Amino acid sequence: MSPAGGWDFVNLHWMCGAMQTGAIEVNQAQARIVRLLMPDMAQAQDGFQPVPDAPGFGWTPDEDALARCRLS
Fold first, then answer.
1. Distance in angstroms between the alpha carbons of the first and the last residue of the chain
2. pTM (2 decimals)?
3. For residues 72 and 59, what is the distance between their CA atoms, to the nearest angstrom?
4. Does residue 38 lie in a domain region?
5. Which InterPro entries does the entry link to (predicted)?
6. Residue 36: inside a domain, yes or no?
């Protein structure tokens, strides 16, 4: 099984619970959005995605970056 569809940062907890190992799909456009809006999100290294140990999804959104995305 290989989860697809991108947004791996949202699906990360599901992937950890559903599988011991395996491939995940990483969408470059979605990864860029994540880096812009949540700069402290851990990035994949050496082919592995680190799992945050913080509560919830384990990341803190950049509120200023999110504000710039809002439609008036």
1. 42
2. 0.60
3. 26
4. yes
5. Enolase-like_C_sf
6. yes
If one counts the domains in the chain, the total is: 1
- Based on C-alpha coordinates, what's the Rg of the chain? 13
40-43: Cβ within 8 A, 24+ apart? 41/9
Which run of H or E residues covers position 32? Answer: helix 28-37
Is 2 inside a domain boundary? no
Quote the Cα angle for 13-23-41, to 5°: 45
Cβ neighbours of residue 6 closer than 8 Å, sequence gap 6 or more: 25, 26, 27, 30
Report pLDDT for 52: 78
User: Which of 60, 68, 65, 46 shows the shortest CA–CA distance to 9?
Assistant: 60
Domain that holds residue 37: 8-69
